[in-house]
Amino acid sequence: IAVGEWRGGRAAEGRARLERLCARQPESTEPGMVYARSILASETLRADVEEVNRLTAENRFDEVVAVADRALARPLDAVQRQSFASVRQRALDAKKITAAVELANRGDHAEAKRSLHELLGQQPERSVAQEAERLLRELGKLEERNRRSR
Q1: DSSP code string of the chain
Q2: pTM of the predicted model as reported, rounded to 2 decimal places
Q3: Interatomic CA distance for residues 35 and 148, integer angstroms
Q4: 139 Cβ partners below 8 Å, 6+ apart?
Q5: Partner of 128 for a Cys bridge, out of 93, 100, 104, 144, CB 3.0 to 4.6 A?
Q6: How deeply is 104 buried, as exposed, middle or buried, from its count of CB atoms within 10 A (0-12, 13-18, 19+)?
Q7: Spacing of C-alpha 44 from chain mean position
């Protein structure tokens, strides 16, 4: 019935039905229950990925970390676990870059540079390192212009 609800465009009702069913029989090894838990896990994973994508687009990195933590608390296969761990780390790194930009925008270039160097010292993934290095170059150019104008 739950799968029919999903396929019929009533995903919320289907999900709620599966959650109730799985909660009532958490230890059942009957094929129908195994299938129900599998569908619920798959749907939960899909919903988490969609939420991460939406929150990331909105730069709501604290919430991305919370979704990733929630996902990592569930049983996941190795690839899914690595994916959510990576999402979590990227969100934390994005928060650090955003904070450094805010510091720079307030005129605290020294603290912004310190924060970016600290991030680079943690050997982040390549795209994060490239962005931190780009920001450091921009800060250097800005400081050079400020020195020349004095």
Answers
A1: -HHHHHHTT-HHHHHHHHHHHHHH-TT--SHHHHHHHHHHHHHHHHHHHHHHHHHHHTT-HHHHHHHHHHHHTS---HHHHHHHHHHHHHHHHHHHHHHHHHHHHTT-HHHHHHHHHHHHHT---HHHHHHHHHHHHHHHHHHHHHHHH-
A2: 0.76
A3: 69
A4: 104, 109, 112, 113, 116
A5: 93
A6: buried
A7: 15
